[in-house]
Write a structure and sequence with these properties.
The chain is α/β, with parallel strands linked by helices. Helices cover 34% and strands 18% of the residues.
Length: 348
């Protein structure tokens, strides 16, 4: 069996959606502890840093680089126009170049992720949730004019990055996107399993491995409930987030073992397909707990474990704010999936 060269995990430094930062409180000391655990306990040699703030990305990247990890620098501006996205990437590319100057050969820049959905202008809707709910979503994304406009946009992003960053670049695509991979050094694919591709996942990996450039699975994972393996990247949809308090849309059972088993299977499938690198989504989802200073007594009581729709390898505490017991000083506890990934990466 082939051995994946890049053994990584995604790490959120503060993505933003609908005006809400997924990491409202950013503590460099806590982030540094997490990254050291990612290296020492998860046995990762790479980390994909995701977030909106180039400053936060820079700080986290510097910590990771000083610990010897390869950094996949992934600035993400969601729900903005194409011109705004290009301008944003230009600034973020200069930040990434500064890191590359200090750590040659250790920084890869991602120019974007799943932008057909996350950028404005391809699918009608003011935000990604509206676009995902569009009644003619499939028709729009497969329309030749949409595909042509998307390819031109990705080429523009690649050109922008190349003008400011002298290292290797990639783009993290979803399966229905067809960027021209010529300007890129890696084929980056967010390849969750789930239906309808559950039974042909291995064939998908093989298809993207034959494009003439190293394939990196930039994002894949599984939520924490029984049957989540069949939901893939849309496991969060089992919760009705429009209802307050949020509630399950059906009878779903919290099951950490289901998540752990699926991640082990996915890692083996990627390894067997000769994938160059894997980034498990995700290490932590800070948004699963209340913002710092929130009165726990004022929060609504959920009728399900709030970790159920999460992809994270660690469980943050909700609604109470307390420290875990496995690792000193961290406000989370490793799940079965943490141990599964650590075991797999440690043996391969």
């Amino acid at each position: 069996m082939a051995v994946v060269r890049l053994k990584g995990v995604c790490y959120d430094v503060g993505r933003e959606m609908l005006g809400r930062n997924w990491r409202p409180e950013y503590d460099p000391v806590a982030v540094g502890r997490d990254i050291r655990i990612i290296r020492d306990e998860l046995h990762c040699n790479a980390i994909r840093l995701q977030g909106r703030s180039p400053e936060r990305l820079h700080d986290a990247a510097k910590l990771a680089l000083e610990l010897g990890l390869e950094v996949w620098f992934s600035p993400e501006l969601w729900d903005h126009s194409r011109d705004e996205t290009v301008d944003y990437l230009a600034g973020a590319s200069e930040v990434a170049q500064g890191l590359l100057d200090a750590f040659p050969g250790k920084v890869v820049l991602s120019v974007g992720s799943e932008l057909t959905l996350f950028a404005q202008g391809f699918v009608p809707g003011e935000n990604v949730l509206e676009r995902l709910a569009h009644p003619k979503l499939r028709e729009v994304i497969f329309d030749p004019s949409t595909r042509s406009a998307f390819r031109a946009f990705i080429d523009r992003l690649a050109h922008t990055a190349r003008g400011r960053f002298r290292g290797k670049i990639t783009y993290a695509a979803v399966v229905f996107e067809q960027p021209d991979w010529e300007p890129f050094d890696y084929v980056g694919m967010d390849l969750y399993r789930g239906d309808p591709m559950f039974d042909r996942y291995a064939q998908l990996l093989q298809r993207y491995s034959t494009l003439g450039k190293p394939l990196v699975n930039t994002e894949f994972g599984c939520c924490t409930f029984r049957g989540a393996d069949r939901w893939g990247g849309r496991g969060w949809e089992v919760v009705d987030w429009n209802h307050w308090p949020p509630r399950l849309r059906g009878n779903y059972v919290y099951d950490p073992s289901a998540q752990a088993n699926e991640l082990t299977a996915l890692l083996a499938l990627n390894d067997g397909a000769g994938v160059h690198g894997t980034f498990v989504y995700t290490f932590i989802e800070p948004g699963s707990g209340p913002p710092a200073g929130t009165d726990a007594a004022s929060l609504p009581k959920l009728d399900f474990d709030p970790d159920l729709p999460r992809y994270a390898l660690v469980k943050t505490f909700y609604p109470e704010q307390r420290l875990g017991t496995t690792f000193p000083g961290v406000a989370w506890e490793p799940k079965e999936s943490f141990r599964a990934v650590a075991d797999y990466y440690g043996r391969h």
